[in-house]
Amino acid sequence: MSEKNIIGKVFKSMLSLKVKERSEKVILSIAITSYLIHLSLIALSSYGVINIDSKLLDNPIAAIYTPFSFILVYEVYLLIFFLPKSISFYIGKQYEIITLIVIRRIFKDIANLELESNWFQSRSDLYFTYDVITSLVLFITIYFFYKNVKKRVLTEKEIQPKEKNIQTFIQLKKIIAVLLVPVLIALAVSAFVVWVDATFINIDNGIDSFKSINNIFFDEFFTILIVVDVLLLLASFFYSDKFHQIIRNSGFVISTILIKVSFSTEGLVNNALIIGAVLFGFVIMIIHNKFESNLSGTK
Questions:
Q1: Is the dihedral of CA 186, 188, 191, 195 positive or negative?
Q2: HSE-up of 33 (CA within 13 Å, CB side)?
Q3: Tell me: the pLDDT tens digits for 5-49?
Q4: C-alpha 166: how far from chain center
Q5: How do the domains of the chain map onto residue ranges?
């Protein structure tokens, strides 16, 4: 059996459409179960049956945070799923993930709202405001990002040659995707153990862990994505030396790095970095498409 066939079989067993649909059902079942468990823990805590000092058990709204975490893990799987198919959709999935992280954070913000008359003097209320505005900006930007990606895909189907080096590049992306799946599983399991220990068991570190709860799993995963993006950028030189494609791929790497950096900040700086990262990738995409249109002779 050739190396290509082996990779194809492994890829199909991990990232086929059937596996994707099955994974979706499993994750949704886990998300619903985890939501009910979290609600039960909140109820037991409120009645004094259990005594766990965690902000995630103070308000029933905070329970939404848990199923969203599992949904985000599935979104990461979708990112890997789209990697061999389209770099643009792969980057778009990164933007979807950071948007969902902000949305998930809003549920935590709602649970901590102080609802004071002097809104802008409350840190919790300010963070809630920042996150709501950020999620709206990201949602709109991603809409236009995908709108431009679809236009580009339609034109590429007609002009993209079936060159051998492009097929090799696609094969490389499949290999990377296959390697990312066990990495995703290992990181998810490790992050879940750390989260349970810090939030429900190790009470002394509970407050500190709560401050960085959004960084669990995703900080490490985006570090891996930077390595993957740089590798894809370097590999792309083998099949294309077009200036606008090099700039687009380089811009996507910068966008991923900005998202990664955002995990080490908080407040307005965090939101600004996230919005800046997605807007930067979107503008890079627009300019790239203008180059494509000029080269193909279309307006």
A1: negative
A2: 7
A3: 777 788 888 888 888 889 889 988 998 998 898 888 888 877 777
A4: 26
A5: 3-296
